[in-house]
Structures are given as C-alpha cells and as structure tokens.
Automatic annotation (TrEMBL):
Biased composition annotated in UniProt, kind: Pro residues: 518-528, 537-567
Keywords per UniProt: Membrane, Transmembrane, Transmembrane helix
Domain Zinc-ribbon residue range list: 4-24
Region (Disordered): 31-54, 515-602
Protein name: Zinc-ribbon domain-containing protein
Membrane spanning stretches: 199-218, 238-256, 268-292, 312-335, 403-423, 435-454, 486-505
Top-level taxon of the source organism: Bacteria
Biased composition (Low complexity): 592-602
A Pfam family: Zn_Ribbon_1
C-alpha cells in the first residue's frame, strides 16, 4: 500500500525508507501507517461495511527557524595614525625670503647705509655755514640755513621744495602798509601765497650713489668672508640696506621743514623716502647680486641678460656724461659777467654750476643731437594773462656764436653716439643684448632729460576783512629739453650708432663680444718630409685607386679580420616567372655536335 511522505506529501511505496521526491527518511511514518492499516483491515462484526475514506497524510508542523544572531557591530574606526607626526606648515617663498631678510646682519647693513646718509649731513652743514650776503644781524640763523640746505639737497632723491606763506600775515592795502600811502581801502587784508621750486641737483645724486656703492662694496666683502648661505643672500642684504637708508632719509625730510617769519618750507619727506628706497634698492641689488651661489641666476638667464645690458648702458652713460660735463663746464666758465654775479649775491656761479653739472651735461648732449632747449612761461592776473615759449637749438647757437660752434656740437653728438655703440658691441654677447643695452641707454637719457630741467610755480591772493575776495595772481616757469624731440632724435642717433659701431670695431681690428675667436679644425698629422725626397704635385682631382679583388697586405703586418658577410641566396626562377633570367654566374654552354653526313645511314 502506498503511503505519503510526511515532509513533501508525495506518495511512495510502504517499503521505501526514503522519499522518492525529496529524499528524506520516512521509516517512522511508514511504521505508523502500517499499524493503522492493520487495524483497519480487521473487520468489525457488528458494524456494517463502510467504504474506507481516503487517508490524508499527516503533515508534521515545521517549527519556524530563528534567524542567525547578528554579532554586535563595533563602532567605525578612524583612519590609521600616520607613521610620523606632521611637521609645521612651510612658509611661502616670499615669506621665507622676508624671514631670512629680517633675521640677517643688520649691523653690516647699518654700516653700509651710514655712507650716503653721512654725505647728506656733511653737505648740508657745508652749505649752511656761509651767510649768503646777510649783515651782522643774521635774519636766518645757522640752524635754519642747515634745514633749508637739507631740503634743497633732498631734491636730489626725488623730494620737493615748497614754500607757503602762513595765513594772516598782516599785509594790507592801507596807508600804514609797506606799499606807501595814497591808496587806502579803509580795511586791512590778508595775503596768502605759496610756491614751489623744482631743480634736481644731479651732482648730489651722483655723489650719493657713489657713497652708497662704497658702503655696499664693504658689505659685500664682509658677506664673502662668511660661509655661503642661501642663493638670495645678496638680495636680502640689499633689502636691509634699502630699508635703513629709507628710514634715515625720511627722518631727515621731517627735520628739513623750518618756519621762518611766517613762511613754511616743506621738503616732501614722503617723496624723498620713496626715491631713496628705489635708488638704494637698485644700487644695492646691482652690487650684491653676485653674493651667494649662482643657481638662481643660472635658472633665470633673462634676468642675468637684463642686468648685464643695464651695466653696459650705465658704463656708456657715465663716459658720455663725463665728456659732456667737461664741455659744459668750459662753456659756462667762458661766459661774461661772472664776476658781477659773484659780487652781487656772494655765491660763485661756478659753484652753482658744479652742483648742477650733470644737468648741464644732459642739456649739452641733447643739444648736440639736435634737441632744442625750451623755456615756457605762463602767468595769470586780474588784469590779464600771458604765455611765452622760447627754444634754443642749433640754429640759435649759430646766431649767438658762429658756425664752428654748430660743427663742434654735432661732432660731440657723433662721438657720444659712437661711444655707446662701441661699448655695447664689445660687451654684449648677442645681438639681442646689444639692442637691449641701447634701449636701456635711451630710457636713461629720457629720464635724465625729464629730471634735468628747472621748474617753478608761484601763486598769491589777497582777501579783505569784509569777506570780499581780493586780487589773485599766479605763474609758472619751465625750462628743459623737449621730451618728444628728445625721444625722436635719441632714437635716431642711438639706432644708427648701434648698427654702425660693430662694423667700425671690426675694421679697426678689434673684436666684439658677439664674434667668437677663430678656431682651426684639427687636421691629420703631417709626416716630416726629407729635403731630398721629391714632392709630387697636387692635382685638383685625386686619382682613383685601382681596385684589386684581393688586397695585398704589407709584410709583417697582420691582416685585419674581415667580418663575415651573410650570403643571400639567389632567387631561383620558377615555371610561373615569365621572362625570368637567372642571376649569377652562368654555366658554360655545351659545344654543338657536328651534323651527320646524309650517306652515313646507308
């Protein structure tokens, strides 16, 4: 009898131990089913026969299986600690440079800065000693004269000289004024006014730069003795020197502001300090740039080229200004009425000319190149105004003197231009560096042309006590080289000299920096020739040596090994190659057989 699997309910034979469908063991279930079947097979006598109901297989309840327990999850662990403790953040290159600068040798920088500052003080004392025509009763004492002289000297560094009348000076238009009686408005008035005087004494500028160079050179020797430091050790020392010089000039500018009889004098200390900073930084960097290793300059060839071209232009400019200064001083010394000017003011005109001698040299250089010296005056008043302009060029020079003066001026211009061209050609290593040096020279000439002039400005006004405005007037005066014409003529002369000078140097037998020394290529060694051995003439076309199949080697000299040459098999023509012809040596053709006689077969 079939029974059912308690697990899957599939019918299986009673004697089967395992389910034929799910494969599970069904022994116990089968035994129970057999007992039930035996009991059902026993007939009950009292009960009628009833058809047996189909057996329903018992399905054992499957207990739910609990899910596996999840182990507790540990809290997330952060990143592993580094193998070493991180150090502090490194500063930027600029921050590192400034740190080394402020931790450097300030004592040596102070010794270098003492030279230019001491020059200003000594010059101010020397200019403040004379009384400049004052009587026994000095109106302006030594202290005021010292401060005025210091204010004038600071113009050499870019400062100004401004004069301003204090308010309420007491000048009026009544009978009690200093202008005399006869015009009385019945009310006193105040006069206010001011003016500025602009004249850069380039002699003081040159001496100041020379004193700074002396101090910085001493500092360079001091730095060279020490152990080599950072690649920018020279630039760090230059910054220290520039900062000290700037601070000292600022203090001198604040001191040089006296007030004399209600008139205030200002030296523009901020502008003086700015000019001193730029000049001292440029000079110190130019002198100290070679201190320390050369890795930085090797990594920046453009900066090295610019510095070398600037040095070339400065050398040429120094020679040119020295020559023009001699010519200008001789010209001023030959002027008339110098003795009268000496007796009237008590100051020698030659001393004033020495203070502004580079200014006169720049004017002479511009005039020799054809740039006119212009003077412009402009004024305004209640009664009208006016404007005047005068120029002094080569034509005016011929009218004042003679034609030979014009020839001499042009000759001076040619010599100055050739000096620039020759110096640039001999010191420049490339054509680009030569042109760069010429451009720097032109820029320096234009700067000196702008600074070498003279400028004054004055203004004044009056006001009455009733609040009504009085009279006002003002005027300006400028003298110097014309900037547009200086640019034009300077460009023409410098370009021509830069182009012609290298050829002149080669014609004169000199050598420029751009031409390399001649080198002779190494040739084969020449064997000595005996005097008795005949010398065969050299033919223009060398004879072709005969080619022998087997070269003969001289006796006693081993034959050099010949490398094996791989043989390439010749291409064998196939039946499909049309018009093929075998390459290589051909076998000799067979000799033809003689024809048989016709009667030989008989």
């Amino acid at each position: 009898m079939a029974s059912y699997c308690p697990h899957c309910g599939a019918p299986s034979p009673a004697e089967a131990r395992f389910c034929m469908r799910c494969g599970r063991e069904r022994v116990a279930v089968a035994s129970d089913a057999s007992d039930v079947s035996d009991a059902s097979e026993a007939p009950d006598a009292s009960a009628p026969e009833v058809s047996a109901a189909p057996e329903v297989p018992e399905v054992s309840a499957v207990s739910p299986v609990a899910p596996p327990a999840v182990p507790p999850v540990a809290p997330p662990v952060g990143p592993p600690p580094p193998a070493y403790a991180p150090g502090p953040a490194r500063p930027s290159p600029v921050g590192a440079f400034l740190g080394r600068t402020f931790r450097g040798d300030w004592a040596g920088a102070a010794q270098a800065a003492l030279w230019p500052v001491g020059l200003l003080l000594v010059s101010a004392v020397a200019l403040g000693i004379p009384k400049y025509g004052q009587d026994s009763e000095e109106f302006v004492g030594f202290g005021d004269r010292l401060r005025i002289a210091l204010a004038l000297l600071l113009q050499a560094l870019g400062g100004g000289f401004e004069v301003k009348a204090a308010s309420g000076s007491g000048y009026g238009y009544g009978s009690g004024t200093g202008f005399g009686g006869g015009y009385d408005q019945g009310a006193a008035g105040d006069v206010t006014g001011g003016g500025s005087f602009s004249l850069v004494p380039l002699t003081v500028t040159v001496l100041w730069i020379a004193a700074l160079c002396v101090g910085v050179r001493l500092l360079r020797g001091r730095l060279a003795v020490r152990a080599p430091g950072s690649p920018t050790a020279g630039l760090e020392a230059a910054v220290r020197v520039a900062l000290l010089v700037t601070g000292a000039v600022l203090l001198l500018g604040l001191f040089a502001q006296p007030t004399i009889a209600g008139v205030e004098i200002s030296a523009s200390p901020a502008l003086s300090a700015l000019g001193a900073l730029l000049l001292s930084l440029a000079v110190a960097c130019g002198v100290l740039h070679r201190v320390g290793p050369d890795q930085w300059w090797a990594a920046h060839p453009g900066a090295r080229t610019l510095l070398r071209a600037t040095g070339t232009a400065l050398r040429a400019l120094t020679v040119v200004l020295a020559l023009c200064s001699v010519v200008a001083f001789i010209t001023v010394a030959r002027l008339d009425d110098l003795d009268q000017a000496w007796s009237a003011d008590g100051v020698s005109p030659l001393l004033v000319a020495l203070l502004v001698l580079p200014n006169l040299a720049v004017l002479a250089l511009g005039l020799s190149w054809g740039v006119p010296v212009g003077a412009r005056a402009q004024g305004s008043s209640p009664y009208g105004g006016g404007y005047e302009h005068h120029a002094f060029g080569l034509s005016e020079l011929a009218d004042v003197t003679n034609a030979w003066a014009v020839v001499g001026a042009l000759a001076l211009g040619v010599v100055c231009a050739l000096i620039l061209g020759v110096v640039a050609a001999r010191r420049s290593t490339s054509r680009g560096e030569q042109l760069l040096a010429a451009g720097v020279f032109l820029g320096l000439f234009l700067i000196l042309a702008g600074l070498g002039g003279l400028g004054t400005e004055m203004s004044g006004s009056t006001s009455s006590d009733f609040g009504s405005s009085g009279l006002s007037a003002g005027g300006t005066l400028d003298a110097g080289l014309s900037f547009p014409e200086a640019l034009l003529f300077g460009l023409l002369w410098i370009s021509a000299a830069t182009f012609v000078a290298p050829y002149l140097v080669r014609v004169a037998g000199g050598r420029t920096g751009m031409s390399a020394p001649p080198t002779v290529p190494p040739g084969p060694p020449v064997s000595p020739v005996s005097p008795v051995s005949p010398v065969s003439p050299v033919s223009p076309v060398p004879p072709v040596p005969p080619v022998s199949p087997v070269p003969q080697t001289p006796v006693g000299r081993p034959m050099p090994p010949v490398p094996p040459v791989p043989s390439t098999p010749a291409h064998t023509p196939t039946a499909y190659d049309l018009h093929a012809f075998p390459l290589g040596p051909q076998p000799p053709a067979a000799a033809p057989k003689p024809a048989a006689a016709p009667w030989s077969g008989l």
